[in-house]
Amino acid sequence: MIQHLLDGILVGSILSLGAVGLTMVMHMLRFANFSHAELLSIGAYSALVFDGLFKALMPIMTVKIGPLSMTGALVLAMILSMGITGLSAVAIDRLVFRRVREKGEELSMVFASFGMALIIRNLIGLVFGLHQMLYTRDIVFATILSRDPLILVKPDQVATLVITLVIILILHLVLSRTTFGYSLRAVAENPSLAQVNGVNLRRMIASVWVLGGALAALAGVFYGLTNHISPVMGRDLVLPIFAATIVGGIGSIYGAMLGGFLVGIAANMALLILPSGYAPSVPFLIILAVLLIRPHGILGTARA
Fold first, then answer.
1. What is the DSSP letter of 98?
2. Is residue 271 one of the residues assigned to a domain?
3. I need a surface site. Which of 61, 188, 208, 249 has the fewest CB within 10 A?
4. Contact between residue 234 and residue 169 where contact means Cβ atoms under 8 Å apart
């Protein structure tokens, strides 16, 4: 049981990173972006490409960082993938979502996001193939935290959790202590009023896409480190990420973080009583339960 709880916390850290970008877009632009999970795939595969490039050009970067499977090349690749994914999110918005948004059809935005998800997923499969891929084939042994009960944890999982917590702290400071954070929250609450007060609406929307894309890329790389990457990873993660967003409350960044951990823990604890084949249904059950009990989520508020 303790092992499942620990695994749930580690999985929840990845879901939290993915859910933050989704909840910001949903709150500001008022539509459910089902293509958001595909940004994790873009980030994961971008990091894979740059990781191979850096290893080929700079062999010294192939040295592992301590007990982690992560190398210096992968760290640089991860940073670049965050930028590329953020810019990709902005490009998708300007080419597709903004044009649909200007016509004032919110439901059309949802259909457009479904279409973009399929396009991105199939393009990745066309370029990289449909098979699973790994950042490294080196075996990283788990550390034994306890023998009775047996509790195992991999260094990569611990690094993922620690980096996620640091990112959460930085994001909190940015949103609560900077002018950018105040402007972002003002646009999310009342775009028209924020614009009257001198906030550049288009710039704020672009910033949300960049930030959400960068966090999604980070989540995608971490998922690839602790599991594997494949063209369908976005499809597999979209429901848990949406569940985390809805549980925490749409528009609440802190709620998305909390929701990610709750969904991760619930999904892993469910394995104690359910066969593994039924585990993907757990996020859907969580969504239904939250919508029935507290439609606005744990930290969410009602909106007009």
1. H
2. yes
3. 61
4. no
Q: What is the pLDDT of residues 71-89, one digit of tens each?
A: 889 999 999 999 999 999 9
298 falls within a domain: no
Q: What single letter denotes the amino acid at residue 235?
A: R
90: its two tokens: 């902005």
Q: Looking at residue 295, what DSSP letter applies?
A: T
Beta strands in 16-160 (DSSP E): 143-147, 150-153
Q: What is the pLDDT of residues 17-57, one digit of tens each?
A: 999 889 888 888 888 899 999 999 999 999 999 999 998 88
Residue 169 CA to residue 40 CA, distance in Å, equals 21
Residue 73 sits in a domain whose CATH number is 1.10.3470
| pTM listed for this prediction | 0.90
In the predicted model, what is the mean pLDDT of residues 182-194? 78
303 domain-assigned = no
**pLDDT at 121 exceeding the cut of 90:** yes
d(CA 250, CA 268): 23
Quote the number of domains for the chain.
1
* Residue 92, domain member (yes or no): yes
Q: For residue 147, give its domain range.
A: 2-293
As a three-state string, the secondary structure of 121-141 is HHHHHHHHCCCCECCCCCCCC
How open is the CA angle 252-301-113, to the nearest 5 degrees?
55
* Residue 89 amino acid letter: A
